From TrEMBL:
Name of protein: Phosphoenolpyruvate carboxylase
Any matching Pfam family: PEPcase
Function: Forms oxaloacetate, a four-carbon dicarboxylic acid source for the tricarboxylic acid cycle.
The family this protein is said to belong to: Belongs to the PEPCase type 1 family.
Subunit structure: Homotetramer.
PROSITE patterns to which the protein is assigned, alphabetical: PEPCASE_1 (PS00781)
Enzyme Commission numbers on file: 4.1.1.31
Length: 911
């Protein structure tokens, strides 16, 4: 798939096979591709990377042993670019005819080629971001930008004063929670190959900067692309929960362990200037990593108490190994002489304690470091961390607080001895790592459905013999007790109740915990967190919260934590319940009411946002969403779920991870600034009537579609919804039940994923056009876009969603359903929404006010179209066979699944 077209023969042969439909000549094709690429205004360095990677992929295809593959890929590529730039039906029909002309085996190969191309383009785009970030060395893009913690601090201090701003900085908390929801379409083997390619690209850049021969790097890149091409793109079977745990651990090992303390260091450098590193930092660790991987059992029968224990054990192993190696490295380098840097009395006392506990090792260390007291201590501390990892109770640390205390003794001794650079340099980084990750790495959270709790309690109270489900539910509480005792109180203890609909749903957790330990046992320490998901539950949330805080065990825990409370809000099911517009408005209103209630009750509230990667599930830029939250709903604390491909996109590369964390933390600081809270409060009041009109109109429009007779089977027919369950994306089942006659049992992820694959993206925008039309006052809506953050975020997210959709391809999916009434409803609403969004954002097309984003979407779109055309032919064949009662064609099914993986890579979205 290089950027020069092969000889003219293939185009002529292809033309002869398409019923006389003329394909472009070689000259026309080269001119078309050149004009298309030039029109994207891609930065030259990125253009060079894409050209190089595409050329090497083309070489791999030519050497693949499949005659004519490269030429067929080029034919379809040129045709889809032509169809994208030429809106005539003839150009689109030509591209469709080429896709339909392939044998199933050739279509399979072509789909794989385009998928590989997307992986390479995504890699080049990520590499360009990293390149820019490194050139800026962590500085924001504009001098007046506030999307870094340091810049946000300066702006906040100007409003509230230095002392208050510092207090807010030091109490700030960003808490991403990684989940195993099945939204990562790539195999781990594919992701690993891409990471190797990223390292090779970085090495190649270094060679070019140093004037070295890049041919060796190009050969290695070619070899890796060949490996990527030959790697099966589809998982042979679903990953187990333990596989999912290990996948998340790869992100920690490769990125987060070092990236997070580097963020703290950068912020401290910016705020303290030249004094940073020579005195105690003013930044306190503000990141906490949570995880549902191995703890979320809502609808996943494969997550058991045993899996939860194993997940915690794996995470602990990773962090303790990291801490051990870091302490050992720092200790070996801490060769400060006892005369120039004398130990404090506390350090001498610590040496005596460590020596008494580990005499042989202390003697060996003293022999190798005869007058290096600080070095000796760090080396013995490293041994104690290793003993903690191997569960040597006599030597290991009981909890991370004791390790922190020992490290503080070393730090204070160094500072008093006149060695502040050593005290607050690498040693400080280690302290930050222990304070952030403890001995557990991720704070493992348990989630279970309220209906399961009710069922188990009814069985327990009836005195009937215990079922397997009951034993498993009770064993979870015993597992939490074990984890708290083994790894510390922070390791586990948050218990999330899905579909919380009453205070009893929360009180039931404490009742089950008492059953688990028996009358003489002590239940684990639990922070029970309600999850409000549906539209009705969001409306009932304030009443349920007011009731539960009076419950004795809930109230006791509230007092023990200084009246701290977490409340989780579900974005996915509320959007599936009432549509994206009404759900967004309902979520804002729920947050405002809960925040006001918490303030009145003197409760320190943390709202936990259950957001997905796709826009239909609360996705989109996190920092802009934070700044659009209601007053007092953030207050320096922001917690959200990070799912599937989002984890690797945001945290897979160290430079991108640091930038993301910096941006989010900056938004957390600014969200509670007086100016931002006033802006949100005033806008909410000023546009109350607009919100009410949009809410009613959008819900009516949404219900007219999803509540129409026969909608659910129609949806399953016009999208690959049924087939998505065959993709081995994650351990969790795609449905809560078996029926497609109702959407109630369909999980939000396949609901979103299916519409995305059909290039309709309905879950991100449907109902907005009707909502805006009902308001009708265009000048007022333009003003709302300028000064109502919630509205602006909604419109911008819809613009992105629609930009990734495609009208012509969507029509072909909708035609599969033989329901012109429903198809017309979707087409009309899409056109109406597109028209309004373009008018409100200015310009003549979607994303006209975001040129960088617009270029990224346009660059991918024709290549995604190629995969969509291949998917359509497979879907039509499968639907035809199903109607005829014929058995499923495994080759067509495989082609469909390959195209699903490719479209997900191209759109960089699944669920």
């Amino acid at each position: 798939m290089r950027h020069t077209i092969g000889d003219d023969t293939s185009a002529k042969q292809g033309g002869d096979s398409l019923d006389g439909m003329r394909e472009l000549t070689q000259t026309e094709a080269i001119d078309l591709v050149g004009r298309f690429e030039a029109g994207q205004e891609i930065p030259e360095t990125m253009r060079a990377d894409v050209r190089m990677l595409g050329s090497l992929l083309g070489r791999v295809l030519q050497e693949s042993g499949s005659p004519g593959l490269f030429d067929d890929v080029e034919r379809l590529r040129v045709a889809t670019i032509d169809a994208y730039t030429d809106e005539s039906s003839a150009a689109f029909a030509r591209a469709q005819a080429i896709a339909d002309s392939f044998t199933v085996q050739r279509a399979d190969e072509v789909a794989r080629a385009f998928t590989c191309y997307f992986h390479l383009v995504n890699l080049a785009e990520e590499h360009q971001r990293v390149r820019i970030l490194r050139e800026r060395d962590g500085r924001p893009e504009r001098e007046d930008a506030t999307d870094s913690v340091a810049a946000a601090f300066v702006r906040l201090a100007a409003e509230v004063g230095d002392e208050t701003a510092l207090s807010r900085l030091q109490s700030m908390r960003f808490h991403p929670v990684f989940t195993a929801h099945p939204t990562e379409a790539r195999r781990r083997a594919v992701s690993t190959s891409i990471r190797r390619l990223a390292a090779l690209l970085e090495e190649r850049d270094g060679m070019r900067r140093n004037g070295a021969d890049v041919r060796r790097a190009d050969r290695r890149i070619l070899e890796e692309i060949d490996t990527l091409w030959r790697t099966a793109p589809l998982r042979p079977e679903k990953p187990s929960p333990v596989d999912e745990v290990r996948a998340v651990m790869a992100v920690f090992d490769e990125t987060l362990y070092t990236a997070v303390p580097h963020v703290y260091r950068r912020v401290d450098d910016a705020l303290q200037g030249p004094a940073a590193g020579g005195r105690a930092p003013i930044v306190r660790p503000f990141v906490r990593i949570g995880s549902w991987v191995g703890g979320d059992r809502d609808g996943n029968p494969f997550v058991t108490a045993s899996i939860t224990r194993k997940a915690a054990s794996i995470a602990s192993e990773h962090v303790l190994l990291g801490l051990e190696r870091t302490a050992l490295r720092i200790g070996r380098g801490l060769t400060l002489d006892g005369t120039s840097t004398p130990p404090s009395d506390a350090l001498i006392a610590l040496w005596q304690r460590l020596k008494a506990a580990d005499e042989d090792a202390a003697a060996e260390v003293a022999k190798r470091s005869p007058d290096e007291p600080h070095r000796r201590i760090l080396l013995l501390i490293a041994r104690k961390i290793a003993a903690t990892r191997t569960r040597d109770a006599d030597l290991g640390y009981r909890d991370p607080e004791r390790l922190i205390a020992d490290l503080r003794v070393v730090q204070e001794s160094l500072a008093r001895a006149g060695a502040p650079r050593q005290a607050y340099g690498h040693l400080q980084q280690l302290l930050w790592q222990v304070e952030t990750y403890g001995f557990h790495l991720t704070e493992l959270e348990v989630r279970q459905h309220s209906a399961v709790h009710a069922k188990v309690l009814a069985e327990l109270e009836s005195g009937a013999p215990r079922t397997e489900l009951t034993d498993e539910v009770l064993d979870v509480f015993r597992a939490v007790s074990y984890l708290q005792e083994r790894y510390g109180a922070r390791a586990a203890g948050r218990y999330i109740v899905s579909f919380t609909q009453s205070a009893d749903d929360l009180a039931n957790v404490h009742r089950l915990a008492r059953f688990a330990v028996g009358p003489s046992g002590t239940p684990p320490v639990l922070d029970v967190i309600p999850l409000f998901e549906t539209f009705a539950d969001l409306q009932a949330a304030p009443r349920i919260l007011a009731e539960i805080v009076e419950h004795p065990e809930f109230a006791a825990r509230l007092e023990a934590t200084g009246r701290r409370l977490e409340v989780m809000l579900g974005y996915s099911d509320s959007s599936k319940d009432v549509g994206p517009v009404a759900a967004n408005l309902a979520l804002y209103e729920a947050q405002a009411e809960i925040a006001a209630w918490a303030q009145q009750e003197g409760i320190e509230l943390t709202l936990f946002h259950g957001r997905g990667g796709a826009l239909g599930r609360g996705g989109g830029p996190a920092n802009s969403a934070i700044l659009a939250q209601p007053p007092h709903s953030v207050d320096g604390r922001f917690k959200l779920t990070e799912q599937g491909e989002v984890i690797f996109a945001r945290y897979g590369d160290p430079a991108i991870a640091m930038r993301h964390i910096d941006q989010v933390a900056a938004a957390i600081l600014l969200a509670s600034s007086p100016s931002n809270e006033k802006r949100n409060r005033d806008a909410a009041e000023r546009y109350t009537d607009v919100a009410a009109t949009m809410d009613a109109a959008s819900r009516d429009r949404f219900f007219s579609l999803v509540k129409a007779p026969g909608f659910a089977p129609w949806f399953a027919r016009v999208t690959p919804m049924e087939e998505l369950g065959l993709l081995a994306l994650g351990s969790r089942p795609a449905r809560r039940g078996l029926s497609v006659e109702s959407l109630e049992d369909l999980r939000a992820i396949p609901w979103v994923f299916a519409w995305t694959q059909a290039r309709i993206n309905l879950t991100g925008w449907f109902g907005l056009g009707s909502a805006l039309e009902a308001v009708g006052d265009e000048p007022r809506l333009v003003r709302a876009y300028d000064d109502w953050p919630l509205f602006r975020t909604l419109i911008d997210n819809v613009a992105m969603s629609l930009a990734k959709a495609d009208d012509r391809i969507a029509r072909h999916y909708l035609e599969l359903g033989d329901r012109e009434d429903l198809a017309a409803l979707v087409r009309d609403e899409m056109a109406l929404t597109r028209s309004w969004v373009v008018r409100l954002t200015g310009g003549t097309e979607l994303l006209g006010n975001k040129p960088v984003l617009q270029r990224a979407v346009k660059m991918r779109s024709p290549y995604v179209d190629a995969l969509s055309l291949l998917q359509l032919r497979a879907l039509r064949a499968l639907r035809t066979d199903a109607e005829a009662g014929a058995p499923i064609d495994p080759e067509q099914q495989r082609l469909l699944l390959l195209s699903v993986s490719g479209v997900a890579a191209g759109l960089q979205n699944t669920g």
